[in-house]
Design brief:
Elements: E1 10-13, E2 22-27, E3 33-37, H1 50-53, E4 69-72, E5 75-78, H2 81-99, E6 104-108, H3 114-128, E7 133-135, H4 142-152, H5 162-166, E8 169-173, H6 177-180, H7 182-194, E9 199-203, E10 216-218, H8 225-239, H9 244-250, E11 251-252, H10 254-265, H11 268-275, H12 279-291, E12 295-299, H13 301-304, H14 309-323, E13 332-335, H15 342-347, E14 354-355, E15 359-360, H16 364-374, H17 387-396, E16 401-405, H18 409-412, H19 416-425, E17 428-433, E18 446-449, E19 458-461, E20 466-470, H20 483-493, H21 504-516, H22 535-539, E21 544-545, E22 549-550, E23 556-557, E24 575-576, E25 595-600, H23 616-619, E26 626-629, H24 631-636, E27 644-648, E28 653-659, E29 668-672, E30 705-711, E31 716-722, E32 733-738, E33 743-749, H25 756-764, E34 771-777, E35 782-789, E36 792-800, H26 809-814, H27 822-830, E37 843-845, E38 850-851, H28 852-861, H29 867-874, H30 884-899
Parallel strand pairs: 6-7, 6-16, 8-9, 8-12, 9-10, 11-24, 12-13, 16-17, 17-18, 25-29, 26-28
Antiparallel strand pairs: 1-2, 2-3, 4-5, 4-18, 14-15, 19-20, 20-21, 22-23, 25-30, 26-29, 27-28, 27-30, 31-33, 31-36, 32-33, 34-35, 35-36, 37-38
Length: 900
């Protein structure tokens, strides 16, 4: 099979966050792929964050699912496509015939392309006749969808990225933009550099890297956003800054919204107390918002992932409606989506309570429109099961088959142990994935190999409604197929017409035509200008924002902003103020679980790490899962920084290392979401997260779970760097980190090791005649060993009863050498770099591989005072800028130490 890449540069789109950056992929003579930012793409103008820049390191076939597999006698075996598809189609048909269409379900993903999403939605809602198709986007942006629909009449993002350039005040709510949407953050940073008078406000319980750019940080008590914005609404009304003409002509519901706000939030001092912020800071925010016309309020998961997420969204929108700050340049509420195609999924009805083309399941005319267009035998007549309820129904046995596509619910869902119970009980579990081994795949009855990024062809839509092409530059590996094709194959085998697509272009054209069918201007989502594209026009399509029409000259005309005409999507054309009565999170802390768990992303990883975990440079910044907590809380609960601790809730538990990041208030802890059963022994934070959801959006409350933290006692700590994989079944705790040409294992154990050398040899699989150098201090419990093959290091192990093990960076550098010097061997046994080998320290700048020690040394020796000076000296901070906040802190700390 020929796996050579297509020999030309290809313009595509990054598969990570909702910023939707354009990339170029250029094959190199050695078979590698050079990834760069697409300078012509409006979303990023050539810039990429470190995750995007490292995409070339993630496209190898190691660990790929390349052939269909079916479970037989408890074990998976390779199968033909014919057998696998018949197993899926026949299994679904048998269950539907016996139990009805609602006994089957699809659980899909914002990682899918719009064309894939469209076919999945068409199959479930128009042919199977059930709305039991939901998506992992339910976990990140469904509250924004519900808020938009309540306020505007449809799921519509009013603004565009250019509005950030034009704003005089940017408010970031529940968004660590610097780490989660780095290119958008750098756009804001450039705005601040060009116009220092622009005010940046960050509203977040944690002091994150984003706060380093802020003029004001409001560290609100978790779950109090509605109090904060209801207070702002009340303040704006009392201050007389409302746009009365706009309100009277273009909105409804202000009186009710103000009445709700006045109950608890009329007094700013009371709001400050409830939100646990300084009254002076609160008034600075309120006063600044009132005095500034061009305000962008951008919000993300900190708002959406809540049992009151929809009300949080509407409390923000209310403030913009009151002041008329919407639909005009430089102003408006702005939902920053988490996934690359969360928006595209919403366009085709990927959520269980939506129909394709922004039509509604509860609207009989919309149902008839979609069914007529599809010529389908039926149409779902009621909303389906949303993600959390779906897996509860699987466990209860009412849903007997689930097809999981491009997602890993065993890691990403709340109450993940319940998800496991559900999959264990489910009669038929089908999984389409690119990776052979995931926590979810372990429960599959049928595994279907899908195309990955670089192999897929279609479209995605970013946070500003910008449709971009994702183009293939690699051939399909093994027997992998596009998701839309797999779905269509199953549909035809189930006896359904309407799935004779021969390309992603054909799917997109049908999607565009449905957006126009019986529209007549009633629906804002409209792709009229994209109907009837030829295959060449589709292949060469430039990014364009919907609604899309054709001008008189035939040129495509996108829409940067919505509501400039002050007409909204409700039947009367008016926007709605929504009364948002504040309410606390569903689960309150108590003496048994006294701390609030907040979850989220780290800078250089993505979701469950099936892609980013393959790139060595992305592992260097944050190698392990961690528990970030306040030092006083750590003292109170008997845990120490650098040591392992167990976090538990009434739903589950996990183990990670304690750290004091300096940005978290007392009473809270933060744990990242990325680690899974393939990368750590016991670090799935989803097992802890409570399953409470917003009653409207169904979005889970990832930001507020009561937990306890306790010491995880171990007798020893160790790490191994090894060119070969290790079996770690007998180790109490471990984390696997991908290095360049090796894997790094951080581990700890509970039993005393009597014969350390013998134990280490067994763990590493080293024979008696191997070149094995070791050192042991029996009295101190310290053991170090290195396994050499020829002159090259093969493995090394460092073990101690304490956590003060040698630095890893210089050891990792040895694996790039073809031979070890005498000083290298001596350093390995001494546990420190000797001679010219320098310990660069933990990675700060992943783009250029610059470590903390290197930066601090340069600050001192070169007398560096600013980030630009550090960048000029070391390149650090000169690409995506994600590390700039950390460099600022190092400058401050290092210069303070030197001055002391």
């Amino acid at each position: 099979m020929n796996l050579s890449p297509i020999p030309c540069a290809v313009r595509s789109t990054c598969p990570y966050c909702g910023v939707g950056c354009g990339v170029t992929a250029t094959p190199l003579p050695d078979g590698a792929i050079a990834i760069a930012g697409d300078a012509s793409h409006a979303a990023n103008r050539g810039r990429l964050c470190v995750k995007g820049a490292a995409l070339g390191e993630t496209i190898g076939l190691e660990g790929r699912l390349l052939h269909p597999a079916v479970r037989e006698d408890g074990a998976l075996r390779e199968a033909s496509w014919e057998e696998a598809l018949e197993r899926v189609a026949g299994g679904l048909r048998a269950i539907i015939d016996e139990h009805g269409p609602d006994a089957v379900a699809l659980y899909v993903s914002g990682q899918m392309l719009t064309e894939d999403y469209y076919v999945a939605n068409k199959l479930m809602k128009g042919y199977i006749g059930s709305a039991n198709i939901d998506t992992n986007s339910r976990l990140c942006m469904s509250s924004a969808v519900a808020g938009h629909k309540r306020a505007f009449g449809a799921d519509l993002v009013p603004g565009c990225y250019e509005d950030f350039d034009l704003a005089d005040m940017v408010v970031l709510v529940g968004s660590n933009t610097a780490w989660c949407h780095p290119i958008l953050f750098q756009r804001i940073a450039r705005l601040k550099d060009a116009r220092p008078e622009v005010r940046i406000v960050v509203i977040d319980p944690r002091r994150t890297a984003t706060c380093e750019l802020a003029d004001l940080h409001l560290p609100v008590k978790p779950g109090t956003d509605v109090w904060l914005f209801n207070g702002l609404l009340s303040y704006l009304a009392k201050s007389g800054v409302q746009d009365t003409a706009f309100i009277d002509a273009h909105t409804n519901g202000l009186a009710q919204a103000l009445d709700a706000a006045q109950v608890d939030c009329a007094d700013p001092l009371a709001v400050a107390r409830h939100c646990r912020v300084e009254p002076s800071d609160l008034m600075a925010f309120y006063g600044g918002f009132a005095a500034t016309t061009k305000v962008i309020t951008a919000f993300s998961q900190g708002v959406n992932q809540s049992s009151a997420g929809t009300d949080k969204v509407n409390s923000i929108i209310n403030c913009h409606l009151l002041t008329g700050r919407i639909g005009q340049p430089g102003m408006g509420p702005f939902s920053i989506t988490g996934q690359p195609n969360a928006m595209g999924g919403r366009e085709v009805g990927g959520l269980a309570n939506m129909l394709a083309a922004h039509m509604d399941l509860d609207n009989p005319q919309h149902r008839d429109t979609v069914q007529t267009f599809w010529s389908s035998p039926c149409i779902a007549e009621k909303g389906g099961l949303k993600a959390v309820d779906l897996f509860k129904a699987i466990e209860a046995g009412t849903v007997k088959a689930v097809w999981v596509i491009a997602t890993n619910p065993m890691v990403s869902m709340p109450d993940a142990n319940q998800v496991q119970r559900a999959l264990e009980k489910c009669e038929l579990v089908v999984v389409s994935d690119i990776v052979a081994n995931t926590d979810t795949n372990a429960f599959a009855d049928v595994l279907l190999p899908a195309l990955g990024w670089g192999e897929k062809d279609g479209t995605v839509t970013n946070s500003e409604r910008l449709i971009s092409r994702q183009r293939a530059f690699l051939p399909a590996p093994g027997e992998a197929r596009a998701d839309w094709r797999i779905l269509a194959d199953v549909a035809r085998r189930m006896g359904f017409d309407g799935f004779d697509f021969d390309s992603s272009h054909a799917v997109f054209d049908e999607h565009a035509r449905l957006s126009v069918f019986r529209n007549g201007g009633a629906r804002v989502f409209n792709l009229a200008g994209l109907c009837g594209l030829t295959a060449h026009e589709y292949d060469t399509l430039e990014p364009v924002q919907w609604p899309v029409r054709r001008g008189a000259d035939g040129a495509l005309q996108g829409s940067a902003r919505l509501f400039a005409d002050r007409r909204f999507a409700h039947a009367d054309g008016k926007a709605r103020f929504i009364a948002t009565a504040p309410r606390a999170p569903v689960n309150a802390v108590d003496p048994e679980y006294p701390l609030v768990l907040n979850t989220g992303r780290v800078r250089d990883q993505w979701h469950t790490m099936s892609r980013t975990g393959r790139a060595p440079r992305l592992a260097d910044h944050t190698a392990e899962a961690f528990i970030d907590m306040h030092p006083q809380d750590a003292l109170l609960y008997g845990v120490r920084e650098g040591e392992l601790a167990r976090v538990s809730s009434q739903w589950g538990a996990m183990v990670a290392r304690v750290q004091h990041g300096g940005g978290i208030a007392r009473g809270s802890v933060f744990v990242p979401i990325h680690w899974n059963g393939q990368t750590a022994s016991d670090a799935r934070v989803g097992t802890l997260v409570n399953p409470a959801v917003d009653p409207l959006s169904g979005e889970p409350e990832f930001k507020h779970t009561p937990v306890q933290v306790e010491r995880f006692g171990v007798a020893w700590h160790a790490f191994v760097l090894s060119r070969s994989e290790l079996a770690l079944d007998q180790v109490a705790h471990w984390t696997r980190v991908q290095g360049r040409g090796f894997a790094r294992y951080e581990m700890a154990g509970r039993g005393q090791l009597r014969e350390r050398a013998a134990w280490a040899r067994t763990l590493l699989g080293v024979t008696d005649d191997a070149d094995w150098l070791d050192y042991e201090d029996a009295s101190d419990g310290v053991y170090r060993a290195v396994h050499v093959v020829g002159e090259r290091i093969e493995q090394c192990i460092f073990l101690s009863p304490r956590t003060d093990l040698p630095a890893r960076a210089w050891l990792a550098s040895l694996f790039a050498s073809e031979s070890l010097t005498r000083l290298d061997r001596a350093g390995l046994l001494a546990g420190q770099a000797l001679g010219m080998r320098l310990d660069t320290g933990p990675t700060v700048c992943s783009c250029f591989g610059v470590g903390r020690n290197t930066i601090c040394d340069a600050i001192v020796k070169q007398d560096l005072k600013t980030v630009p000076e550090v960048t000029a000296c070391l390149k650090a901070g000169g690409n995506c800028g994600s590390c700039v906040p950390e460099i600022k802190v190092l400058l401050m700390q290092t210069r303070a130490r030197e001055a002391a």
